Amino acid sequence: MLAKRIIPCLDVRDGKVTKGVKFAGNADIGDPVAMARYYYEQGADELVFYDITASNERRAIMLEVVSNVAREIFIPFSVGGGLRTLADMRAVLLAGAEKVSIDSGAVRNPRIIAEGARAFGSQCIVLSMQVRKTAVRPGLESGYEVVIDGGRVFTGRDALEWAREGVSLGAGEIVINSIDRDGTKAGYDLEITRLISEAVPVPIVASGGAGAPEHLREAFTAGAADAAIVASIVHYGEYPIPELKRYLKSAGIEVRDAIAL
Amino acid sequence: MIAIVDYRAGNLTSVRRALEFLGHRCEITDDADKIRAARRVILPGVGAAGATMENLRALGLVEVLRRDVAAADKPFLGICIGIQVLLDRSEEDSAACLGVIAGHVTRYPGSIDGRPLKVPQIGWNRVRQTRAHPIFTGVPDNTHFYFVNSYFPVPDDPKVAIAESDYGVNFVAAVASGKVVATQFHLEKSGAAGLKLLDNFCRLEF
Predict the structure, then answer these.
(1) C-alpha span between B188 and A73 (Å, rounded)
(2) Looking at CA atoms only, how far is residue B182 from chain A in angstroms?
């Protein structure tokens, strides 16, 4: 049986993590390598980096971050943000990422999913989708709509249908990021997470809303998620990863015991 | 020097980075002479069995791996696709493989008792050490390792298995025969435990 994964998310702008962390000496400078190392040593099962750099030099800066992280961190990590072409993906993978995460770019050009899967294998291609709850209406039968561009643009596309299409095109994993819950600390959107998890044959990652250890337990049980992305719940030292894992273990959920050797 | 066999697949550099982090000298190479001269050989990577064998064949490395590495008793480590191509054949692409270890490679079932099984397996799974082997020195039994696989090896001789795991079915997660060792899980992505196994391999005196 696979362990449920806890995945800290780091937003990187101009080569620095945008949110400082208030707990771990060295990691407090927003240096992505130091923060990645900290979470690695704490027992994170995977990491995700989102490049939110707006400048034209974004690619070079991010690739340097990726390659520095890859020299010191020996767990899988994915990189997303602004990846639009096969060449963008290849560069990130060659720099040392295990997976690429595509989001708005895939909605605009779904073929990129198939091209990426063919070139690098489905296991490399993570389809990240931002969703919001909406009224059920024709074309939006699941009651969830796909949104893009940081939650600003509503696409009118049904989230469940987009997940199915993404998997049929070759996505090997799906991240469901609820923009209603993002930053609320009110818990993940369990309804859409379970709906998609039961509908597609690839791992599902819950994202957006984690504020307490129970929220992770719910994501893995009621939400049927295989992994959960965490941000502020760990960044501010409120719940260190070992504590989250102890809680989940006591709730009967299989987690990885990170060992120091 | 440790040779990492370059057969044009992804994920070769992550093994190199892990070896460099551990302080071992290594080189990614497709040069038969360098592979013959290396003290140890690693065949890592993600990929499909058919394409991997085609590339090894096109590079002239099939006989090098069979004769000059496996049969010559040179320490060899296969990782992920590197364990699968050691067997006689794989269901994936109906590929004829290296035949260093007798047996075949099969796919996880799509469902177990009517419940769908997500394939590929992607994530951390517990590995039970079924036979003592020095590659495991310092690593507790039942440690989690990182897997990404749709297929797994089925050796004819169960005694070559040194570890197993469960994903819908019970499967062989690592094999050893002479100086050939191979794991289905990714040592280079399995945190401290994976690094420890890699380091053990690099230091093994068989």
Answers:
(1) 9
(2) 19
With beta carbons under 8 A apart, name residues in chain B contacting A123. Answer: 46, 120, 122, 148
CA–CA separation, B189 and B40 (whole Å): 20
Listed by start position, the domains of chain B span 2-203
A23 pLDDT higher than 60: no
User: Beta strand pairing status for A173-178 and A125-133?
Assistant: parallel
Q: What is the rounded CA–CA span in Å between residue A175 and residue A112?
A: 17
Query: Binning pLDDT at 50, 70 and 90, where does residue A16 land?
Result: confident
pLDDT tens readout for residues B76-125: 999 999 999 999 999 999 999 999 999 999 999 989 999 888 888 999 99
Query: Smallest Cα–Cα separation from B72: which of B104, B27, B41, B28?
Result: B41
pLDDT for residue A96: 92
Q: Which residue of B has its CA nearest to A119?
A: B10
CA of B67 to nearest chain A CA: how many angstroms apart? Answer: 31
Tell whether domain B2-203 is in CATH 3.40.50.880: yes
- Give dist(CA A104, CA A128) in Å, integer: 8
User: Where is A107: in which H helix or E strand?
Assistant: helix A104-108
Phi-psi label, residue B73: left if phi above 0, alpha if psi -120 to 50, beta otherwise: left
Q: Do B123 and A2 touch (CB under 8 A)?
A: yes
pLDDT of residue B119: 85
DSSP state of B66: I
Beta-carbon count within 10 A of A63 CB: 19
Return the DSSP state at B109.
P
Nearest to B181 by CA among B104, B92, B69, B52: B69
Name B89's bridge partners.
B96, B104
Q: What angle do CA B41, B43, B49 make, to 5 degrees?
A: 150
Maximal C-alpha separation, chain B: 51
Q: At CB < 8 Å, which residues of chain B contact A?
A: 10, 13-14, 17-18, 20-21, 46-47, 110, 116, 118-126, 138-140, 143-144, 146, 148, 166-167, 188-196
Buried b (16+ CB within 10 A) or exposed e, A74-104: bbbbbbbbbbeeeebbebbbebbbbbbbbbb
Predicted pLDDT at A28 = 52
Task: For residue A72, give both structure tokens.
Answer: 């010191």
Q: Which CATH class is domain A5-250?
A: alpha beta
Asked if A213 and A174 touch (Cβ cutoff 8 Å), the reply is no
**Subunit contact A3:B123, Cβ cutoff 8 A:** yes
Per CB-CB distance under 8 Å, the chain B contacts of A94 are: 13
